[in-house]
Amino acid sequence: KGNGMIGNIYSMGLALQALEATRKFYAPRKWDCAQALSVVSAHDYQQPMAIAQVLPALVGRSYLDVAGLDCAATKDVSPGQQLALSPTLGTHGVPRAPILVHYSITNTLQGKHFHYSTSVTVPSGSTLLRVLEVAAEENPQTFSFQTEQTSWGPMVISIHGLAANTDDRTYWQFLSAGDALDEGVGTYRPHAGEHIQAVFSTY
């Protein structure tokens, strides 16, 4: 994309591994490794799958190097303790300021078309999933939704009773200011006043 991004933030890990492993085949065309690495270094990865794919690239390796690992040389490393965050408290127990997030759902693709909007208040730093949960709690008849757990985190498969379908190539796409979100609902954190749109779409 000219700024170091290859696809989206989640495809970067495998893309970097592939480019590094096949670097000699790309001559004479060069790719800017440093620029791409700066993109992933600046991103706060949360999902284990994304982290697992980007870590090898950060140390100049790829999954192909697994075949040459010396397992006998590895030492037991105890995982560091992580600070658990409360949904309403920050790292030092200070209540997080509430923010207002605007949320709309739209279907102009199948069956009876609909468009509904709401505004919900959540603690700052909340995920988009929490925004959806609050909207559903306040108005379940309109904003009810279902998720499916994937290795990339929760994926929204149905909103307002309208389910995505691989046969129809339909899915719920989440946008902000008209641009598709580059993170899933379980990790994306809306900012105050942001308008999140869920649009029933096709691919």
From TrEMBL:
Recorded GO CC terms: extracellular space
Subcellular location: Secreted
Record keyword Cytoplasm present: no
The keyword Chaperone is assigned to this record: no
Molecular functions (GO terms): cobalamin binding
Keywords: Cobalt, Cobalt transport, Ion transport, Secreted, Signal, Transport
Organism domain of life: Eukaryota
Gene3D superfamilies reported in the protein's UniProt record: 1.50.10.20, 2.170.130.30
Cited InterPro entries: Cbl-bd_prot (IPR002157), Cobalamin_Transport (IPR051588), Transcobalamin-like_C (IPR027954)
An example Gene Ontology biological process: cobalt ion transport
Annotated Transcobalamin-like C-terminal domain residues: 125-197
Binding, cyanocob(III)alamin: 8, 53, 181, 203
PANTHER family: COBALAMIN BINDING INTRINSIC FACTOR (PTHR10559:SF15), TRANSCOBALAMIN-1/GASTRIC INTRINSIC FACTOR (PTHR10559)
Protein family according to the UniProt entry: Belongs to the eukaryotic cobalamin transport proteins family.
UniProt protein name: IF factor
Lineage: Eukaryota, Metazoa, Chordata, Craniata, Vertebrata
